[in-house]
Request: fold
Amino acid sequence: MSAPALTDFVLAHTSPVPVPLHSAVEAMDLWERTRHDQPPFWAFPWAGGQALARHVLDHADLVRGRKVFDLASGSGLVAIAAALAGAECVTANDIDPLALAAVELNAAANGVTVTTLGGDRLDGDAHAADVVLAGDVFYDAEITALVLPFLARAAARGALVLLGDPDRAHLPRDRFAAQARYEVPVPLTLESTETRSATVWRA
Reply:
């Protein structure tokens, strides 16, 4: 799909919600329309991302004037929060081209600049970012095994690594320190509840 076609798809199947963020109403129907193996992670504000975004906005000093890399950005919620909090520059990375189109739309809706970066970047070092953010990335054992070394390398070179997670089964709690906990609204069709608790962790 071309970039305009990606943007048109996002606009056709989502609508802005108060964040403001383009969000879908029905998960399964949209998933079928994308014809992807993975759910449309970009179409919803996930619990871990919401908690992390709230934390960044409440503690703007964590990102203000710094280079930020948002891993598996999805809708761009966390990246946008970092930009609103005064980050020098923000890069949103996702492997799904539809996610990148959603990030661009959502950044524009919030009046901020976010650079999008496609493809799997887990072999890299987050482009020497000062802060690495990741919301809701421990939903699967295979993904966790790929993400952990990336985050460890970033922390080892001195980057601030912050994660948002709603108690997913694969979160290795012994490797992180809890910073704050938030109650956030979630899509009922995806989480089987209307609210979830999510913790912000620091590597």
